Amino acid sequence: MSVLAVSDLLDRRGIEYRVIAPQETMPNIVATFAAGKPGRHLALNGHIDVFPVGNGEGWTQDPWGGALVDGRIYGRGACDMKCGTPASIFTLLYLHELHEELHGRLTLSAVSDEETFGPWGARYLSEHHPEVFGDCCLNGEPSSPWTLRFGEKGPLWLEFTVRTRGAHGAYTHLSKSATAIAAQIIGDLYRLEDIRPPEASNLANPAAVLLDLRIN
């Protein structure tokens, strides 16, 4: 999926949008509209970039072909996320047709830089265009119909400097090994995985949330 394909679709449906490209080769599309009645702001987000294909060797199908073989689509990004992002785009298109009957505001951001931590994509938008994020954001990253995520993991970069007195290798008792100290720190960090997250009563059971969504 390219920015041109997204913009062409929005143009044909008469949807206004902005192209925000802090990096020329990684443009982002932002489309938004206000509903006919006051209410909250819903944001839809998805990325249109994919990992590179290398030199093209080792692929059983053309990574850019999108071939349908035995009921499966083969192509780079067929799962991540040329399914979820179009779902958000078509949600915008359909709801725009009903905007006079809706409440609030809807914003779509289709970003071009997700696979490398988003310095020119979602991260750039969050730092320079916070208006694209609303009261709630829905992202169609691949999972399953039975998976709801109310948050997402993120990177935590830590840097440690270990200093010791230093000593001759024959007199190791005079100084502790900096490598051993660093290894112990790594082991201590792994124990953070044992910390149980707090459970909110209305989020503890995804099946119940799904049921609520169906009823409403």
Characterization of this structure:
It is a single chain. Mean pLDDT is 84; it is low at 203-216. The chain has 216 residues and is an alpha/beta fold. It has helices at residues 3-12, 84-97, 122-128, 178-190, 206-215, and strands at residues 17-20, 28-34, 37-47, 67-69, 72-74, 103-111, 136-139. A five-stranded mixed beta sheet has the order 1-2-6-3-7, covered by helices on one side. It has a two-stranded antiparallel ribbon with strand order 4-5. The protein has two domains: 1-142, Aminopeptidase; 146-216, no CATH class.
SSE arrangement:
Elements: H1 3-12, E1 17-20, E2 28-34, E3 37-47, E4 67-69, E5 72-74, H2 84-97, E6 103-111, H3 122-128, E7 136-139, H4 178-190, H5 206-215
CATH architectural grouping of the largest domain: 3-Layer(aba) Sandwich
CATH superfamily of the largest domain: Zn peptidases
Which oligomeric form is depicted? single chain
Average of per-residue pLDDT values:
84
Task: Report the biggest beta sheet as strand number plus sense, adding barrel if it closes.
Answer: 5 strands, mixed
CATH topology of the largest domain: Aminopeptidase
Whole-number count of domains: 2
| C-alpha end-to-end distance | 33 Å
> What are the low-pLDDT stretches, counting only 5+ consecutive residues below 50?
203-216
Radius of gyration: 24 Å
Task: Supply the helix-strand structural class.
Answer: alpha/beta
DSSP strand count = 7
Number of helices: 5
- Bin the strand percentage: 15-25%
CATH class of the largest domain: Alpha Beta
| Net shape | elongated
Order of helices and strands: HEEEEEHEHEHH
